[in-house]
Amino acid sequence: MRKPCCDKEGTNKGAWTKQEDQKLIDYIRAHGEGCWRTLPKAAGLHRCGKSCRLRWINYLRPDIKRGNFSEDEEDLIIKLHALLGNRWALIAGRLPGRTDNEVKNYWNSHLRRKLISVGIDPNNHRMNQSLPRPQNRCLSSPSTSSESLSAPSKPSKTVGEDDQLSDAATCVENEALGLHGLNLDLTMAVPSSSSSIEKKKQQSAELKTREVVENDGVPTLLLFR
DNA sequence: AACGCGTGCAACCGCCTTATT
DNA sequence: TAATAAGGCGGTTGCACGCGT
């Protein structure tokens, strides 16, 4: 039986107050992102460590870019989703200042609908056969541009993930020839505030990608190298 | 003005992965 | 090598807000 991540008794839940935010910011400014489990107590917060981490990463971090997503960002999210499925953290890693939660929310609230509206199944990035195939397929400006996003089966972490990835990669690879001006060089960008944590993340991403390449047996795009 | 409905987003939950002992 | 702790991730929920009726 797994222990809960924190003592549920006596911890606040729900929306963060300004005072709590300030305590968290002050503490991290003074001590850095240390051990999340002990941070709440040290910072004088009645919160679960996970909750503190989430609040910091998704909202309080100084390098977070807030506001609307640009068309370029939209395009990139869609293409990366075609390649990677619901790996929001990896996708967000390609969008400086954006968090996985933000990307995930944006996908679920905007982009999914957008894809559906142009006749593309957001789960597999294939054209919905019941709908007429549009001539122009740019998703951020559907009426003007073109590209095809056929791709993977249902994004799933457990079943057929490699197949999905290779399938998606192959499709996008095929299309990539027609991707005018889109930067699909997926080298991990290390933020200026890079730390050992970021380096670890990068290494982890590299590892995962290599797994795909090695396990697949099918030539796929080599990402994050 | 009041109500219902849909949407967007912050936050939580539970599982998985990684590190440590 | 196994057990445990901690971090990280994706799915989901719940609430606030805006809009239409």
UniProtKB/TrEMBL annotation:
InterPro entries: Homeodomain-like_sf, Myb_dom, Myb_TF_plants, SANT/Myb. Its main location: nucleus. One of its GO terms (cellular component) is nucleus. One of its GO terms (biological process) is response to other organism. It comes from the Eukaryota. GO terms for molecular function: transcription cis-regulatory region binding. Residues 125-139 have a biased composition (Polar residues). Residues 140-156 have a biased composition (Low complexity). Residues 8-60, 61-111 form the Myb-like domain. The keyword Cytoplasm does not apply. Gene3D superfamilies: Homeodomain-like. Residues 8-60, 61-115 form the HTH myb-type domain. Keywords: DNA-binding, Nucleus, Repeat, Transcription, Transcription regulation. Pfam families: Myb_DNA-binding. Residues 122-164 are annotated as: Disordered. CDD domains: SANT. The keyword Lipid metabolism does not apply. It is found in: Nucleus. This is Uncharacterized protein. It comes from Ilex paraguariensis (yerba mate).
